[in-house]
Write a structure and sequence with these properties.
The complex is a heterodimer of chains A (108) and B (633). With 108 residues, chain A is of the alpha+beta class. Chain A contains two helices and seven strands, in the order E-E-H-H-E-E-E-E-E. In chain B, the strands form four sheets. Chain B has an eight-stranded mixed sheet with strand order 3-2-1-4-5-6-7-8, with helices on both faces. In chain B, strand 4, helix 9 and strand 5 form a beta-alpha-beta unit. Chain B is flat. The chains are: A alpha+beta (108), B alpha/beta (633). Chain B: It holds the Pfam family ThiF. Chain B: InterPro entries: ThiF/MoeB/HesA, ThiF_NAD_FAD-bd, Ubiquitin-activating_enz.
């Protein structure tokens, strides 16, 4: 399996949970080795969130995750489009995808 | 300095006269505006056919001053004379006169939008002025809506500006919004955003929603309907609403605010200005591809990037904007979002507040409930908003309709409402409980498989409601909905008995008190301590060396009198609170157990000692010293 590189972007305050880094390029490990118990070979957003929680999320995971999805109020965008258009958690991540997590703002 | 005060007073007086005259002028001009409005006709909210008819001779309806005044924007092909006419007869509601609302309203007023409404409950604070450009130092403590309206009138005297100095909520929102064509969401909290969204979906108005925090801003349009725009080719198109994209509100701890997280002044300025632009485009009738519909603008001032992302379309299962909505009227949004729309100052003392909230709870009003704090699991705070009691829908079950046993369909709405009102307004808490108990029959299981065997089958409950004095059997849902109760409450009422509570056990510290009172007490032996104003007294017992021995004595005495003794902790606490100590000197020189230096001083030189510094130590509470073998200094 070829390497899988994705660009993760955070904005609207979501970056505060990830060391205040707004944009980072990450390389995902081979899924069979990382999560052997789920018997899958392709990364989807569901597994990406688990990986992010284990590797990137520094504090207060409840402000980012809820159950196996993101918490209400965070928009997930895959290549600048709402993840709903791609099948949400089941979207198969492609090499070079830009995945963006936006916390909605409410100030005014 | 005198000259300064004189001038300040003079200016204040002149300002007052100016305000009066301005108000007078505004009243006079109002008449003129009404006339010009009648002239223009309401092109924006008539049928498309009438619009087409008007198109041919519309240009004659714009007065000459207006053509001159708005000439720079009329030159634009997207606006033109017809667009300007639409602007002049448009009615826009700006909710929030803060960082977003101020710049948005300025440009709308400048563009000649005929009727601008401004809603804000708040007063101007000095911390607002860096971003809320309609307010100035002079307006501090003035209502934001009034202050903004005043400035807008000075920008454009040809338009009508209506300030609403109220907090927008479910009760007044429909009335306020009914007179407007476009709504700008410039609010700063989640409940009001959901309220505005539901309001706009229900009334069919487009909602231009902006937000800004720290260095970032977001902008999009919700609830757009193509059938209100005659330029749209596909009249059935509908954009997503706020709930389509965010069906559930975010957890309150994840929501930031300008007062807590800060904001750079120009950021809401940018977003508010763009909101005004989208409103102008919406009014002149541009199609949805050209506006931020199904798209969101993200502005990041930190690295100066604008980004457009594609949002999902309208959700066919949306709770409010789908064909079969589950929310058809405005709800209690503070309870829905579990956060407050407005920071309410809590001035009542804790016990008084608890009593007030309990009273609200017992009369079916919305109240604040308790929660454990995140940090200390044992500490409680009372800030969880709970919604008021509401009458639920009547029973719609087919089984109840067909059968003859239950009488759910014999109750009309009026009777149910009266029952609900009587239950929550006339009865006290015990009355409510008794009322429910008389209406619910608890029937034990009819048959046991084995005699005396413990069955898992619980009691059946038969629910009744009164109709003209008659007690009629109804289903559980009908009963609970009519009285606005939940099942858990009902069960706890049914199981509770009227047995009086067992009297509280007497406080054990009381017998410690009486025990200590009986002991002999003497002043400190140390002269320095006695002369300084230390309130400590010593228990004068020859056979007791320390407080632990005293406690053993106390235990013995209590046992002999057959009274349950207090714990050693309680005992020590009571003793130290009464400023009592036990001290058994080891030798002749050992006179003070508080300050060791006092012992080193021969008794004849007491007067020469500067006790200033040591004296401080004497003021310390005795429990601070308590239990320390080593003396503190």
């Amino acid at each position: 399996m070829s390497q899988l590189k994705v660009i993760l972007q955070f904005s609207g305050g979501a970056e505060l949970l990830f060391d205040k880094i707004k944009k980072r390029e990450v390389e995902l490990p081979v899924l069979e080795k990382y999560l052997p118990q789920i018997n899958k070979s392709e990364w989807s957003i569901r597994e990406l969130l688990v990986w992010m929680k284990d590797n990137l999320l520094k504090e207060r995971p409840e402000l980012f995750l809820q159950g196996d999805s993101v918490r209400p109020g965070i928009l997930v965008l895959i290549n600048d489009s709402d993840w709903e258009l791609y099948g949400e958690l089941d979207y198969k991540i492609q090499n070079g995808d830009a995945i963006m997590f936006i916390s909605t703002l409410h100030g005014g | 300095m005198d000259r300064v005060t004189v001038l300040e007073e003079e200016i204040a007086n002149l300002r007052m006269i100016l305000q009066q005259k301005e108000a007078e002028l505004y009243e006079l001009k109002k008449e003129c505006i009404r006339e010009s409005h009648a002239q223009l006709g309401s092109t924006n909210h008539t049928t498309p056919e009438l619009n087409n008819l008007l198109k041919t001779h519309c240009s004659a309806r714009l007065p000459k001053w207006a053509i001159v005044r708005y000439s720079r924007q009329i030159l634009l092909p997207d606006i033109g004379v017809k667009g300007q006419e639409k602007l002049c007869s448009a009615r826009v509601l700006v909710v929030g006169a803060g960082g977003l609302g101020c710049p948005a309203a300025v440009y709308l007023a400048g563009a000649g939008v005929g009727d601008i409404g401004i809603v804000d409950y708040d007063d101007v604070e000095i911390t607002n002025i860096h971003r809320q450009i309609l307010h100035s130092e002079r307006d501090e403590c003035m209502s934001k809506a009034e202050s903004a309206a005043h400035k807008l009138r000075s920008i454009n005297s040809h338009i009508k500006v209506t300030p609403y100095n109220v907090q927008l909520d479910s009760s007044n929102a429909v009335d306020i919004a009914s007179g407007y064509d476009v709504v700008l969401d410039c609010t700063d909290n989640v409940p009001t955003r959901y309220l505005l969204n539901d309001l706009c979906v229900m009334t069919g108005l487009p909602l231009i929603s902006g937000s800004a925090l720290k260095m970032e801003g977001q902008l999009t349009i919700y609830g757009y309907r193509a059938d209100r725009n005659c330029n749209e080719k596909n009249a059935s198109y509908r954009g997503p609403c706020y709930r389509c994209i965010f069906p559930t509100p975010p957890p309150p701890q994840a929501v930031g605010s300008c007062s807590a997280n800060g904001v750079a002044g120009p950021v809401p300025g940018v977003i508010g200005t763009l909101q005004a632009l989208e409103a102008i485009k919406m009014i002149v009738g541009l199609t949805h591809e050209k506006m931020l519909i199904e798209r969101m603008l993200l502005f990041d001032g930190e690295d100066m990037t604008f980004k457009i992302v594609n949002l999902r379309g309208q959700n066919q299962q949306c709770a409010v904007c789908s064909q079969t909505p589950s929310i058809t009227r405005l709800i209690d949004y503070e309870a829905f979002c579990k956060s407050q729309a407005k920071e309410k100052p809590i001035t009542l003392p804790v016990t008084e507040r608890r009593r007030v909230e309990k009273q609200k709870r017992m009369t079916g009003k919305s109240y604040y409930g308790f929660r454990k704090t995140d940090r200390d699991k044992r500490a409680w705070v009372q800030d969880v908003p709970k919604s008021e009691r509401k009458i639920g829908p009547p029973c719609s079950s087919d089984l109840c309709q067909k059968g003859t046993a239950r009488h759910c369909n014999e109750f009309d709405e009026e009777a149910r409402k009266e029952m609900f009102r009587h239950f929550w307004h006339d009865l006290d808490w015990k009355g409510k409980r008794d009322y429910v108990k008389t209406l619910v029959d608890v029937v034990p299981p009819k048959r046991r498989r084995k005699k005396d065997a413990i069955s898992r089958k619980g009691d059946s409950k038969l629910y009744h409601l009164r109709n003209k004095g008659e007690r009629l059997l109804v289903c559980r849902l009908m009963f609970l909905n009519t009285l606005g109760l939940k099942e858990a409450m009902l069960r706890s009422w049914l199981t509770c008995t009227d047995k009086p509570r067992s009297p509280k056990k007497p406080l054990k510290s009381l017998n410690v008190d009486s025990y200590i009172d009986a002991l002999p007490v003497c002043p400190p032996k140390c002269e320095i301590c006695r002369n300084s104003c230390v309130q400590i007294r010593y228990l004068n017992l020859s056979h007791v060396k320390n407080i632990y021995q005293l406690y053993v004595e106390y235990m013995k005495e209590m046992k002999s009198r057959n009274i349950s003794p207090a714990s050693r902790k309680t005992f020590c606490k009571v003793v130290s609170l009464r400023n009592l100590r036990v001290f058994k000197p080891k030798n002749e020189n050992d006179v003070c157990d508080l300050v060791s230096q006092h012992n080193a001083i021969p008794s004849y030189s007491y007067q020469n000692v500067d006790i200033g510094k040591e004296g401080l130590n004497h003021d310390m509470p005795t429990e601070y010293f308590y239990g320390e073998d080593q003396l503190l200094l």
